[in-house]
From TrEMBL:
Compartment(s) where it occurs, according to its Swiss-Prot or TrEMBL record: Cell membrane
Organism in which the protein naturally occurs: Paenibacillus solisilvae
Entry's transmembrane regions: 24-44, 50-70, 82-104
Record-given protein name: Cytochrome C oxidase subunit IV family protein
One protein family per Pfam: COX4_pro
Keyword terms, alphabetized: Cell membrane, Membrane, Transmembrane, Transmembrane helix
Membrane topology qualifier: Multi-pass membrane protein
Homology family: Belongs to the cytochrome c oxidase bacterial subunit 4 family.
Length: 105
């Protein structure tokens, strides 16, 4: 078994371990985003339209952090899951837009 590992290491195919530092930073950043979003809603004196836009922005930022650090979508070799997720997002947005047009007519 050591021959297989040494052959893979020589060819540069060994998986590089990032360590816990990036995961801890991503976790703290996720917690901070959640606290900021909760504080914005709890304040209550801010324009509701601004809060909705801000919450959507915070949610998209949270999704980016979760997918890049926890699901390792930033690594090489994840093109098919990324394409699948993007296609799913496209289908969901299309369904929501079509449902809104259907309800308005």
């Amino acid at each position: 078994m050591s021959n297989q590992h040494s052959a893979a290491e020589e060819q540069g195919q060994r998986h590089k371990h990032e360590g816990p530092r990036k995961h801890i930073v991503a976790f703290i950043f996720s917690i901070l985003l959640t606290i900021i979003a909760f504080a914005m809603v709890a304040a209550g004196e801010i324009n509701t339209t601004f809060i909705y836009i801000f919450l959507v922005f915070m949610a998209l930022l949270q999704v980016f952090i979760q997918m890049s650090f926890w699901m390792h979508m930033k690594d090489r070799g994840h093109i098919f899951p990324i394409v699948g997720i993007l296609m799913g997002v496209f289908v969901v947005f299309t369904i929501v837009i079509m449902a809104e047009y259907w309800a308005w007519w």
